[in-house]
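Anyone? Bumping this.
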Amino acid sequence: MTSTTLTPVAAAGDTRGRGWRRYRSRTFYLFASPWIVGFVLLTLAPITYAFVVSLTNFDGVSPIWRFIGFRNYVEIITSDPGAWASLIRTIVFTLIVVPLSVAGGLALALLVNRRIRARGVVRAIFFVPSVVPVVAVAIMWRLIFNRDAGLLNLIIGWFGADKVTWLADPYAFYALIIMTLWGLGGGMIISLAALQDVPVELEEAARIDGAGNWRVIRHITIPMISPVLYFQVITGIISTLQMLVQPLLLAETSSIAASSNVPQSSTLFMVEVYNEFFYNQRFGYGSAMLWIFFVFILLLTLGLQRLSKRFVFYQVAAGGDD
Amino acid sequence: MATLIEDDVRTRAVVRPPGEAPRKRRRRLQTESSKPAGVGTYIAVIIAVGLFGVPFVWILLASIASPTQFSQGAEGLLDVSWDFSNYIEAVTRINFGAYTMNSIILSTISAVLSTATSALVGFAFARLRGKGQNFLFLIVVATMMIPSIVLLIPTYILFSRMGLVGTYWPWVLWGLAGLPYLIFLFRQFFTAIPLELEDAAIIDGCGWWRIFFTIFLPLAKPVILTSLLLSFTWTWGDYLAPALLLNYDNTTLAVATASGYLDPRGNGLPTIQAAGAVLYLLPVVIIFLFAQKQFMGSSVSSGVKG
């Protein structure tokens, strides 16, 4: 982010040296102060506090606690197979869910970008799941995954398969994947908007040169919208890695105190952290896990940002906006 | 119903400033695939619609099934009688009215406060200058990306030590701080407004405060509406924050729907919960149907500007 992002306004505003000045830092800070104060108190303070707590053996209740240095961190890294397993599980989950949802969103976008009947209704049906509140999503899918009254077992029964207890190990992992993918309509809309910005001349030229549908998509469409796909990959990775509520709510009995009821196969890293806090009452240990995760996600984001330069095609000065 | 969603999702009034003309229609027609869709496309569309729509159908079926039909299994659900007693049970078994009221109050507090603050801060980033401004904006963008759930647990511990658990103060504070995404939205909108508007006001001796309230804010009505709708539905749909920070009697409908429908022995009541969930999600779907442009546009602008 350089200062060039703000030039249109800045250029006209320099009347320095006389008594009157258009811009004063003071004014900017006055207007931005709610957010600045809020950022310090509601973002910096909690994350700093978590770091302090992570250096202690605080249990959330007892006033007797002491600093134990980085012992929590050492324990997590050297002797907590549960944390490692859940981290690996989360990474695998993310590696499955993110590509599938970006690709699925793109496929749907290509579909509803064609001239079909009732296109608006179709788009709405694909998009609505992504705005349904997570509590309702989980209740809906628990009904689908229900062992006896669930639709999924009914359907696989038609093909002669035995009933599956979807919400228990090892199937809960797949149930969580299916439920997450249901919300890919948000990505569809982003891809659809990008598709509509692809200059049609390029696609036509390729067709004249004899490229079929698939080759046009592969060599023209996807490269042209790659920045948007890439953006979806990054935000998808960040939000999927920290998934917590979905596994909690999908678990068989889902009251807030029942976090330990989450089946192992859907115990993602944040669920593990949640259990440390509210089930094992190990606030210090949980905070250390949070910090490790926080740094992990931060480094990953920076790494992906670097990587993007190699794969993403950024059109030069395409539109007027930004 | 065919125009439920505008054909061109790019023409989003959401972030288009008043000075900028809507994009030309001609281009949209060009970018469409020129041939009408074939049978294969329709088969794919029908299958996809089935996959995405079926959870809605299934929950509606469960919500009108009797417990015995439900316990008979999936075949029982395919053959339900139209019995709405689950809905009556859903609103009487828990204190449905009170929870709904809590959700409305909390969502309104969040929506109004965060929209007001975000407009102000977005204006500051778009039209004012200050030392370190670009760095601060980088932080705004970064906080849009940084794990928010990671923050919630430490925030909960802090708030509980300050005695704010069980009150609506956390939402007031979060609202007053503004939401990075909404700040971004407002900033995008305000940046594109022509400088001349502002110049004229400055020559007339207006201060920034008045410029903001009398010129920029009235122009921003579409963004304000989008911001209100989005933040309202976010708080309405949020589960974790109210579950952690509120008590059983002043919590939101989200938490009550998720964990309130139990029989005295603590077993779930799936058909009644299904009815409760339908009632709970209905407002969101209605808001969505009336304001698709805002919802989809915000999705799009979050993606395209990234």
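Late reply, but here is one note on the structure posted above: Chain A touches chain B through 126 residues (CB under 8 Å).
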